[in-house]
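Structure first, sequence second, as always.
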């Protein structure tokens, strides 16, 4: 049995500006990508080996090892699609002139939509040229973990094979939980993602919505095994146990 989550296209985001990282990670996850983040060039090279990404978004100006050197080093062993990100449009000519072997170049600030279009184009080219083994995911806006499936485009949720109508905030909450499955999300993060950073209402709202979601998602809502409480922190959507490893 394979887990759909593990088949998603993995993007290694190499970026040292925190303000970009968060927005990019969330935006790309919404597009159906799995995202790994490296915050400097050395970490990028380590993570590249570890996660074997399908595409790398590589900032040029990085601490420790520059994006240029990271790109050159990766190109000695891999043809993985690489999109270089420059701080200014004027820098692109300089970077292109260095011929480091990147697939494409974008400059900050970029629109997520444009970036994703370029990423998909680079993935398609790499796939057509036989440079990568995996195909880009077709169901880009579908999250599926175990028997819970969320289609953001169609605004549909299917649980244990049956379609379930979720009110908007419950849908968004489930979307955030599924997109970050396996990771702890703090109460503050969940509230700001679903209700907005300027939310000033009762924090019990989150618990009420979690309770309603559990009633729909959990086999036994009184003993949650999917949306679990992490005491003192927040909540986590548990990934199904790997059937191979649990044997
Ligand atoms: Ca930078």
């Amino acid at each position: 049995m394979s887990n759909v989550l593990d088949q998603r296209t993995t993007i290694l985001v190499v970026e040292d500006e925190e303000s970009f990282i968060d927005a990019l990670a969330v935006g790309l996850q919404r597009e159906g990508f799995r995202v790994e983040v490296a915050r400097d060039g050395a970490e990028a090279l380590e993570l590249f080996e570890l996660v074997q990404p399908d595409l790398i978004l590589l900032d040029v100006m990085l601490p420790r090892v520059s994006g240029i050197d990271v790109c050159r080093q990766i190109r000695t062993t891999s043809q993985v699609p690489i999109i270089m990100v420059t701080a200014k449009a004027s820098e692109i000519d300089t970077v292109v002139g260095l011929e480091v072997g990147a697939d494409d170049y974008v400059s900050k600030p970029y629109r997520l939509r444009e970036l994703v279009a370029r990423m998909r184009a680079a993935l398609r080219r790499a796939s057509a040229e036989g440079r990568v083994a995996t195909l880009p995911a077709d169901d880009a806006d579908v999250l599926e973990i175990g028997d819970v499936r969320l289609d953001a485009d169609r605004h549909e949720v299917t649980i244990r094979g049956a379609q379930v109508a979720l009110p908007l905030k419950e849908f968004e909450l489930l979307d955030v939980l599924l997109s970050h499955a396996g990771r702890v999300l703090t109460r503050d993060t969940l509230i700001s993602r679903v209700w907005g950073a300027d939310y000033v209402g009762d924090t019990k709202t989150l618990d009420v919505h979690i309770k309603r979601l559990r009633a729909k998602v959990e086999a036994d809502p009184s003993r949650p095994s999917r949306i679990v409480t992490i005491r003192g922190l927040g909540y986590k959507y548990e990934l199904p146990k790997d059937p191979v490893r649990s044997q």
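Margin note: Residues 1-6, 243-247 have pLDDT under 50 and may be disordered.
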